[in-house]
Amino acid sequence: MVYLLATTLLGFAIFVVFRLFRKFGIDNLHAITANYAVATVISYLAYDHRVTAGMILDASWFPFVLLIGALFIGVFFLFAHSAQKAGVAVTAVSSKMSVAIPAAAGFIFFSEDFSMIKIVGIVAALLAFYLTFKNKDKLVTDWKTLYLPFFLFLGTGLNDLLMKTADYHYIEDDLLLLLSVIFFVALIIGGLLLSFKLLGNINKLDPKSLVAGMLLGLVNFGSTYFLFKSMEYFDSSLMFPVRNTGIVVLSALAGYFVFNEKLNRTNWTGILLAVVAILLVAAG
């Protein structure tokens, strides 16, 4: 339970950090790249065994981490683009509803316990996401860009599913090594994008954003590490819904109490339903 609570709180902390990024004018690409650099170093240094290139290339999980690393950074940029083109509300809903993919996979591929109470809880969680993010604005701003939240839904869900698959079938005592490779792949992609912009004079190096990204890297490492540790003890059909729902509730409350965002009756209904969903999934 400690691992699940930790990854939920740190996942919520990432939300807060990104909100502060916007407030203080932090460049996302700089910060994201620096974040993965710090997460890579922490993971590598924490792994107290000798590491060789051949050891990594021969690891059974290596193909998975290449895709996971690419999805890590790709999903974030897709989220940002979808928020700008399709609207923040539908983007937030689609990213959180992706929890249906690893939850369903838990029943189908990982022989997890099936119960109607848990199914009702998962459905309640999906409805809670919609109600919590719903506001006075239209949920969809441009129907022509609906492919963006759709691919965000698939990308986020696939990423969770791949992490569960790697944990279920391949991870033994090398979790930290696996994490270092995942973060390193994301770092390479982010570094190439940043270098392209810097060399093309599209962007300038921003030390403030790099420092902010380093702080984000500490939180991101912890959130991801405890996410994998949670999968060792909880079914994905329980862990992912509870984690995502917890992050949604905490984020909505932080928006209300810290960032002075207005919550209407529908939003409060969504928050209450989210709490009920967590209890149902846990009881199932």
What does this structure look like?
The protein is an all-alpha fold. It has twelve helices and no strands. The protein has helices at 2-23, 28-46, 53-57, 62-85, 88-97, 100-108, 116-133, 147-169, 175-199, 207-233, 236-257, 265-283. The two termini are 16 Å apart.
Features:
mainly alpha; 12 helices; 284 residues; 0% strand
Please provide a brief summary of the model.
The chain is an all-alpha fold and 284 residues long.
Percent helix range: over 70%
Low-confidence stretches: none
Quaternary structure state of the chains depicted? single chain
What is the number of beta strands?
A: 0
How far apart the termini lie comes to: 16 Å
Number of helices: 12
Q: What's the overall geometry?
A: globular
Note the beta-strand portion. Answer: under 5%
Structural class: mainly alpha
Average pLDDT level: 85
Order of helical and strand elements:
HHHHHHHHHHHH
Largest sheet: none
**Rg from C-alpha positions?**
19 Å
Task: Write the topology of this structure.
Blueprint: H1 2-23, H2 28-46, H3 53-57, H4 62-85, H5 88-97, H6 100-108, H7 116-133, H8 147-169, H9 175-199, H10 207-233, H11 236-257, H12 265-283
